[in-house]
Amino acid sequence: MRYTTFGRSGLRVSQAFLGTMTFGEDWGWGASPEECRKMLTAYAEAGGNVIDTANKYTEGSSERIIGELLGADRDRFVVSTKYTVSMDGNDPNASGNHRKNLTHSLEQSLRRLNTDYIDLLWVHIWDQDTPIEETMRALDDMVRAGKVLYLGISDAPAWVVSRANTLAELRGWTSFVGVQLSYSLIQRDIERELLPMADALDLSVAAWAPLARGILSGKFTRTDATTGSRINRDAVTEQGMEIARQVDIVADDLGITSAQVALAWIQAHHPWVHPILGARTLDQLTDNLAAFELELPEDAVRRLDQVSQIELGFPQDFIEMSRDFVYGPALTRFDRRKRSQW
């Protein structure tokens, strides 16, 4: 597996991150500690170095298992976790992005992970009731205290991320270096605003659900079995099924698995987008890891692009449509210094 720097930082991260929402059996569908050990070992042997978890994953078991498994090798990994989500639904201050919840959540995560610092701390989701100034200043305090090294934000609008980093740069606070977003052939919505923002601000992207919760693995298209699935077959749209069938066709043509095709497609377009691999078994993870040794043929990439294409909507569509009117005949003699990747 290859490495690159994360956002504007000098932190070296692997192409794929290991997602650990499946670490622990508290939610009824996760992996046992022994299976988690096997997956972590396989990921490390493949060159992976980023472990992605959250305080809420399997009610804290994910962080505890990671802390136990890393042991003396902790410093060889980039440990990332998240705060925001409540661990006590009866306490109104046990959730959100305010200073009190950040302080408490971080201390609890440090204990469960058995470490004295977090490499990458994510804001788990945008909290509309906490001023972004409070969040950024509180996060900066944690960095200055040495409890956190880098910051990211997950599941937030582009304007929120942009405003947060602008405020941080203006006031000398620590900025976000990455965003964590849902991205796959079935869900390409972030190409409208969030991916262009990330590109413009030099933010790396951690992509969760790159297999669309298993739909792109052939789970529904190659067999009728849905036992153990966290999604209902009836919830999958016909367009989603058609995209999945096209992924299957490409996979069969190339002699690889559907999951490998879906993951390789992300890398074909955006090498600074890091798929989060959320497997429940060693076999699933091993199959996923093989995708990072592949390069899809251009015709396969175009085929998948076309079947999964989305409308960018206003204002992007209008801006593109108006280019001749706005810039006139001189447009044909103008070369952009930087071309968009989507």
TrEMBL record:
<feature type="domain" description="NADP-dependent oxidoreductase">
    <location>
        <begin position="18"/>
        <end position="308"/>
    </location>
</feature>
<dbReference type="InterPro" id="IPR036812">
    <property type="entry name" value="NAD(P)_OxRdtase_dom_sf"/>
</dbReference>
<dbReference type="Pfam" id="PF00248">
    <property type="entry name" value="Aldo_ket_red"/>
</dbReference>
<dbReference type="InterPro" id="IPR023210">
    <property type="entry name" value="NADP_OxRdtase_dom"/>
</dbReference>
<dbReference type="InterPro" id="IPR050523">
    <property type="entry name" value="AKR_Detox_Biosynth"/>
</dbReference>
<keyword id="KW-0560">Oxidoreductase</keyword>
<protein>
    <submittedName>
        <fullName>Aldo/keto reductase</fullName>
    </submittedName>
</protein>
